[in-house]
Amino acid sequence: MGLKDIDAAVRAYQKLSIGEKAVFKSEVRQKKRKKRKPRKKQVARAEGPAPVAREATPRKKGKGKRKKGRRAPQAAAAADAGFTDGLSGPRADPLQDISKE
Questions:
Q1: Looking at the record, which segments are called Disordered (predicted)?
Q2: What is the pLDDT of residues 40-49, one digit of tens each?
Q3: Does residue 71 lie within any of the structural domains?
């Protein structure tokens, strides 16, 4: 289909009335629908032991957890509260000897 043929087809389409254009569009739509691949039917599987359902794996977390820049203000707050000895506070080291106090 050359450019002149396309040009002529466009001109002819523009001359059509609204009703004729609607008919033309519906025909084009039907042709496209015929070209579509039909949906594959599910084939019955071979008999045998039923497949065991696997447990769902927990979903992967995003990369936001890796950004540790937010820890600094918390550390400063912990220092203000006096949790610098490692013996008290939410992140106390249980292996340190408490008898030092």
A1: 27-101
A2: 777 776 676 7
A3: no
pLDDT, tens digit (0-9, with 9 covering 90-100), for 49-99: 776 777 777 766 666 666 555 555 555 666 665 555 555 555 566 666 555
DSSP per position, 48-89? SSPPPPPPPPPPPP-GGGG--TTHHHHHHHHHHHT--SSSSS
83, part of any domain: no
What is the residue whose two structure tokens read 């950004």? Answer: 67
- The answer to whether the beta carbons of residues 52 and 66 sit under 8 Å apart is no
Residue 81 tokens read as 């509260």
Question: Global pTM?
Answer: 0.28
Residue 15 lies in a domain: yes
The answer to whether 34 touches 42, Cβ cutoff 8 Å, is no
> Taking a C-beta distance cutoff of 8 angstroms, is the pair 12, 4 a contact?
no
Output the CA torsion sign for 69, 70, 73, 78. negative
* Number of domains, the chain: 1
